[in-house]
Amino acid sequence: MLSSVLSRRFVLAGAAAVACALVGHTTVAQAAPQVVRVGIMAGEDEDVWPIVAANAAKEGLELKLVTFSDYNAPNEALAEHELDANAFQHGPFLDAQNKAKGYSIVPVGHTYVAPIGLYSTRWKSVAALPDKAVVGVPNDPTNEGRALLLLQKLGLIKLAADAGNTPTALDITENPRNISIRELDAGVVGRALPDLDAAVINTDWAKKVGVDIEKTRIAQETADNNPYICIIAVNEADKSAPWVSRLVGAYQQPNVRQALDKAFHGAVLPSWP
């Protein structure tokens, strides 16, 4: 059933993109382009990946883009070989899926990071947050850990040294300003912002619930050494296939940087050199 569903949702990168492969690349043009099925999420990525497809066509790859709205589905489809690659998740999410479902999916290249941010409609800076401030965080394991690590980096709390990338509020060992952590669903924390002193909100949810990112963001993650960089992923058996490096190379291009900035309005940061 999954195969028939995906076949109906294939989005051809476009005949014009394939035609590009025939211009100025005589060695590639002599062979039919290799079809690569790539799973992406519906939304802004649908504006970015046609640019990647045009780049890939010049290297002999014909991308067929498959869109999803369920974050669990692209890895299932990849593991079942209904896809050749996907590009929607960060490393900790993939690690959790591999562990929970027994997948053998590996990252092969970076795309972008959507920095999780600290937002406030009441205070203009982290320094201005008062003692006993109430700070909302997402309550799912990955994003709560990410939020608490940001609060630690900002000097608001200190976490247990062995908490790793998925700490919870129980791992807070120091809280000098007596910050009160309010755990909320990731889709709710942004809507609750007016009722909180501040909230750590995922960029995509901030956009969805209408948070004014530029006016209310008082801190955010950096891309440097960020474990939550989004990735292109493939089945482990394919990681050394020649098409993989060409696919990653097609993404990591200046015109894709420009497409990311336009599609996400500056809310994500490209994460390759």
Structure report:
This protein has twelve helices and 15 strands. Mean pLDDT is 89; it is low at 1-29. Helix 4 packs across helix 11 (242-251). It has helices at 2-9, 15-20, 26-29, 45-57, 73-79, 91-101, 141-153, 186-189, 203-208, 213-216, 242-251, 254-264; strands at residues 10-12, 34-41, 61-68, 85-90, 105-110, 112-113, 117-119, 134-138, 158-159, 172-174, 180-184, 198-201, 217-220, 230-235, 269-270. The chain has 273 residues and is an alpha/beta fold. Strand 2, helix 4 (45-57) and strand 3 form a beta-alpha-beta unit.
Q: How many extended strands? A: 15
Q: Number of helical segments?
A: 12
- Beta-strand percentage range: 15-25%
Question: What would you call the shape?
Answer: elongated
The averaged pLDDT comes out at: 89
End-to-end distance, in Å? 40 Å
Q: Report the structural category.
A: alpha/beta
Contiguous low-pLDDT stretches (5 residues minimum) are: 1-29
Order of strands side by side in the largest beta sheet?
1-3-2-4-14-5
Let me know the largest β-sheet: 6 strands, mixed
Order of helices and strands: HEHHEHEHEHEEEEHEEEHEHHEEHHE
What is the helical fraction, as a range of percent?
25-40%
The value of Rg in angstroms is 20 Å
